[in-house]
Task: structure prediction
Amino acid sequence: MAEKSPKYVVRVGDKEIEINEETLEIIKEYLHRPMSLDELADKLNLESWEEAYEFIKKVPAWIIWTPPALWKYRSEWISRKTQ
Result:
C-alpha cells in the first residue's frame, strides 16, 4: 500500500485550510502583487480580513516561501524523513 504524504492544515477560527498547491498559489499571489487582506479572504473562502490575517500569521515561513511546484515533492520528502 502506498504511503500518503502528510496533510498540512491551518486552523482559523472553526475553519481548517489545507495547505496544498492551490493554496500556495494564492499565498504567492498575495506576496508578490498588491492584494488586500479582504481579497485574500475571498480567495481562501474566509469571512473577513481578520481571518486572512490570522491565517497568514499561522502559516510557517518555510511553507509560505515554498514554490507551489515543489510542494508535493517537499511534503513527500518530509514524510519519508519522519518514518
Notes: The chain has one domain: 14-78. The chain has a mean pLDDT of 87. The longest helix spans residues 68-82.
